[in-house]
Amino acid sequence: MARGLPKQKPITGVKQVIVVASGKGGVGKSTTAVNLALGLTAVNPSKSVGVLDADVHGPSIPKLMNLKGNPELTDSTKRRAVCLLSMSMGFLVDDAAPIVWRGLMVMSAIEKLLRQVNWGSLDYLVVDMPPGTGDVQLSISQNIPVAGAVIVSTPQDIALLDARRGAEMFKKVNVPVLGLVQNMSVFQCPNCHHQTHIFGSDGARRLAETLGVHFLGDIPLHLNIREMSDRGQPVVVSSPDSPEAEAYKKVAAAV
Ligand code: ADP
Hints:
About 35% of the residues lie in helices and about 20% in strands. It is an alpha/beta fold.
């Protein structure tokens, strides 16, 4: 475990930080992070869970959770959607404004989001990382005690290549890889129920085996996931009994 490295300083009030990462953008990392966080509260109702959007250049948590506003970095930054406390650069900048920042500015913003938000008392803080293996991933892994990383990938070779790099990076900085989630694993035609593996089948499962890490589960490619995400109503809360919500809860239970 990365806990206890000399430079690492815990986030006040937060018991476990779980980072959700991917090699590539667009594989469903943020969607998975939000539904995983909600899934954690669904499978452990007594636990409190928060979400931090560390994707400073492309914050999507406000949209995914249908939240707006300009909180200050004080007690009033508590933003609750359903039962989740969340924080994102997206609350602090205009939707259309590009965030044109160099590495150091990004890191300073993330430090603020992590440490100047009153997270209260959280059992889990789920951090939606930017894609790839850059400064942010390294700094978060080195500056705070991270309980583990969940890597999201589609089954496609091009996504798996980068997912592998992500997993290897976490191993290098002593962050335990909790496992791989295979997103968009299969598409079932709503009319004829034929199943198509649009992005290939079982690539992430095989990669998990190769890396010697857990396979946390499959999330189907499903219209409901996309539509509900666009409305800011993640499926775990908007369609809690649907197979797609169950898929996220299964991943949460495996984490
Ligand atoms: P990332 O964070 O990796 O860039 P997002 O979570 O923003 O990816 O997802 C990219 C797009 O794919 C979004 O439009 C999202 O609604 C959609 N999406 C993600 N996962 C699924 C899924 N399992 N089924 C259908 N659409 C999905």
